Amino acid sequence: MKRILASLAAIILSASALISAQQPTDAPKPKHYYLDDVAQFVPSLANATLTLCGQGVSMHWRERIALTLTSAVICEGTTLALKHIVHSRRPDGSDYNSFPSGHTSRAFRGAEMLRAQHGWTWGAGGYAVAIGVGALRIHHHRHRFGDVAAGAAIGFLSARAAYLLLPLERRIFGWNRSQVTAVAAPSITPGSFSVTASVIF
Fold first, then answer.
1. pLDDT tens digit string along 56-93?
2. How deeply is 103 buried, as exposed, middle or buried, from its count of CB atoms within 10 A (0-12, 13-18, 19+)?
3. Quick one: which of 109, 105, 101, 116 has its CA closest to 44?
4. CA 187 to CA 176: how far, in whole Å?
5. Beta-carbon contacts of residue 15 (< 8 Å; ≥ 6 apart)
6. Can you name the residues that pair with 182 across neighbouring β-strands?
7. Which residue among 11, 26, 82, 139 is least crowded, i.e. fewest CB within 10 A of its CB?
8. Torsion-angle region of residue 58: left (phi > 0), alpha (psi -120 to 50) or beta?
9. DSSP per residue over 111-145, as a string?
10. What's this model's pTM, rounded to 2 decimal places?
11. Is the dihedral of CA 32, 47, 51, 63 positive or negative?
12. pLDDT category, 199, cuts 50, 70, 90?
């Protein structure tokens, strides 16, 4: 699995390098909007913070990590591949990476993961932030509505795909095998000796 993840990471980095090289010769210097750049990670950070505080559905930490990594790889891989294939110029003319919106896909992936693990109480806030990110990308002329809508769909579907793949990952790594814990504790009192044992499945 480590080799597979390393290979996927190499593919994503290679695609990213190819995309960054595709700048139009007459392109203006792209502007960076820090609110967009930070807000795209807010739903994911909220999910991680709540998890560290012990909130949300009961799930082993390794399964949470598997869900996060799987959804991120699918989301980033799909987004970068489509940017390279579609080759759509941004509204501000800075490059040809307009379709789909990577900021929006990351925000919606995080929002759906937040909703799935912590319910709609937190998920609604995550989706509100994700929608705000998409609106900001349009407002700042970095994307069109279609770019943002596609990014939202990719982010949502990436999170759902990670949950669909989790049973397969459990089988691959043997996480679904029953584990047995046995505990034995001796008890000594004046004139008697006993041993108490318990087995936990």
1. 777 888 999 999 999 999 999 999 999 999 999 999 99
2. buried
3. 109
4. 35
5. 77, 80, 81, 83, 84
6. 199
7. 26
8. beta
9. HHHHHHHH-HHHHHHHHHHHHHHHHHHHHTTS--H
10. 0.74
11. negative
12. very low
Give the integer Cα–Cα distance in Å for 81 and 65. 24
Identify each DSSP E strand in the chain by its residue range: 181-189, 192-200
Residue pLDDT, tens place only, 104-154:
999 999 999 999 999 999 999 999 999 999 999 999 999 999 999 999 999
- CB-CB contact of 109 with 156 (8 Å): yes
What local confidence, expressed as pLDDT, does residue 56 receive?
75
Helix, strand, coil percent content, the chain, rounded in steps of 5: 65, 10, 25
From the centroid of its chain, how far is CA 109? 5
Lookup: tokens for 187? 């008890």
* Tokens describing residue 170: 């459990």
Report d(CA 47, CA 58) in Å as an integer. Answer: 14
Give the whole-angstrom CA distance, residue 72 versus residue 110: 9
Phi first, then psi: what are they for 92, rounded to 5°?
-85, 0
From the centroid of its chain, how far is CA 21? 26
